[in-house]
Design brief:
Structural class: mainly alpha
Oligomer: single chain
Shape: globular
Order of helices and strands: HHHHHHHHHHHHH
Strand content: under 5%
Largest sheet: none
CATH superfamily of the domain at 97-300: MetI-like
Distance between the termini: 68 Å
CATH architecture of the domain at 97-300: Orthogonal Bundle
Number of strands: 0
Radius of gyration: 27 Å
CATH topology of the domain at 97-300: MetI-like fold
Number of helices: 13
C-alpha cells in the first residue's frame, strides 16, 4: 500500500504578480511619455511651418490661390533676387503649383485605384497559392522602393518613349513660343505616381481581402454565387474601410511626393491649356512639393522662404484633411456594414 508524506517545507507564495504589475505600470508610463513627446514634436513642427509661411499668405490674401500675369517661376525668382525695380518682392500666385498637384495626384488615383483593386482581388482570391506567394513579395518591394528610383525610371525610360511617339515635331514647334514640349509632362507625372502608389494600395487591399471571414465566402457560394460574384457582393463590401484607408494613404504619398515629380513633370510652373486637346497632358507642370525641392537652396531669402513654407502649410492641411476624412469615411463604412 502506497503512502504519501507531507513535504517538510511549505511552498512560498510567488510574488511575481506585484512585480509584473509594477513593470506594466512603468511600461505604460514610458509609452505615454513617448506619445506625449511625439505629439509635442508634431505640434511644434506645425506651429513653426505656419509661423514661417504666414507672411506669404498675409502679403497676398486670397490672390495667393489664384493666377497672375507674372509666371510663378518668375515670382519665385524675384522673391529670391528681389524686385527688379528695387526692394522686396512678396507677390505670389500659387495656382499653377496647386493645379499641378491636383492634376498629377488626381490622375494617378483615377488610374491606380481600379488597377490596384483588381490586382488585389486576383492575388487574394483568384490566383493559385504559388503564384500569390510569388507576387506578394514583389508588391511589397515595389511599395517600399524609394521615389528617386521611380523618377530615374520615368526620366530615362518613359520620357524618351513619350517624346518620340506622342509628340509630333510640327506640334512641338507650333507650341514652342509658349512652352517647350518634352517627354517630362503631366502624363509622365501621372504615370510615375501611379507606379508608386499602386503597389501600396494593392498590399493593403489584398491583406484586407484575406481577412474577410471564410464563412462569409462559403455562405455566398452555398447560395449559388460564383467566385467573382462572391467577391463583388461579399468581400469588396466587407473591406470598404480598408479601401478608404488604402486610398487615403496613397493619396497622402502622392500629394507630398517631390523628387519623382520634380524629375518627371518638367518642373515648369505652367498652366496646361484644355483647348490643346490631348496635348494638355503633354505639357509641363510643377507641383507644390516639387517646387519646395527645386527652390530649397534659396532659403536665405526671407520672402522665398516664406513662400516655400506656405506651400508646406497647404500640404500639411491637405494631409490632415485626408486623415480626418478617411477616419470619418471608414467609420461610416463600418457602421453601414454592421447594419447591412
Amino acid at each position: 500500500m502506497a503512502t504519501f508524506t507531507r513535504p517538510l517545507v511549505e511552498p512560498r507564495p510567488q510574488s511575481g504578480g506585484a512585480s509584473a504589475t509594477r513593470a506594466d505600470g512603468i511600461f505604460r508610463a514610458v509609452l505615454i511619455a513617448i506619445s506625449a513627446f511625439m505629439l509635442i514634436v508634431i505640434a511644434a513642427i506645425t506651429v513653426f511651418v505656419f509661423y514661417v509661411g504666414w507672411p506669404s499668405f498675409s502679403a497676398n490674401g486670397l490672390s495667393w490661390f489664384g493666377s497672375g500675369d507674372t509666371p510663378l517661376d518668375v515670382e519665385l525668382g524675384y522673391s529670391f533676387l528681389g524686385d527688379p525695380e528695387g526692394g522686396r518682392y512678396t507677390t505670389l500666385n500659387a495656382w499653377p503649383a496647386l493645379l499641378g498637384t491636383l492634376l498629377t495626384t488626381g490622375g494617378a488615383l483615377l488610374l491606380s485605384f481600379p488597377f490596384a483593386l483588381l490586382a488585389a482581388i486576383f492575388i487574394a482570391e483568384l490566383a493559385p497559392k504559388r503564384l500569390a506567394a510569388f507576387l506578394d513579395p514583389i508588391v511589397s518591394v515595389l511599395a517600399a522602393t524609394p521615389s528617386v528610383i521611380y523618377g530615374l525610371f520615368a526620366i530615362l525610360v518613359l520620357a524618351p518613349l513619350i517624346e518620340q511617339n506622342l509628340i509630333p515635331q510640327d506640334k512641338a514647334e507650333q507650341i514652342s513660343p509658349v512652352v517647350t514640349l518634352t517627354g517630362a509632362n503631366v502624363l509622365l507625372g501621372i504615370l510615375v505616381l501611379t507606379l508608386m502608389i499602386a503597389p501600396l494600395m494593392i498590399a493593403i487591399f489584398a491583406d484586407a481581402l484575406r481577412a474577410v471571414p471564410v464563412k462569409w465566402k462559403e455562405g455566398a457560394i452555398a447560395l449559388g454565387c460564383d467566385e467573382w460574384r462572391m467577391t463583388r457582393r461579399v468581400s469588396i463590401r466587407a473591406i470598404r474601410p480598408a479601401l478608404v484607408a488604402g486610398t487615403t494613404l496613397a493619396m497622402g504619398r502622392a500629394v507630398g511626393e517631390a523628387i519623382a515629380l520634380s524629375m518627371a513633370t518638367g518642373s515648369i510652373a505652367f498652366i496646361p491649356n484644355p483647348l490643346d486637346g490631348y496635348f494638355f497632358f503633354l505639357e509641363p507642370v510643377r507641383s507644390l512639393a516639387s517646387s519646395i525641392v527645386d527652390y530649397s537652396e534659396g532659403f536665405e531669402s526671407p520672402e522665398l522662404k516664406a513662400n516655400l513654407f506656405a506651400f508646406g502649410v497647404i500640404l500639411l492641411i491637405t494631409t490632415a484633411a485626408l486623415t480626418i476624412g478617411a477616419k470619418i469615411a471608414s467609420r461610416a463604412a463600418e457602421k453601414k456594414l454592421g447594419g447591412s
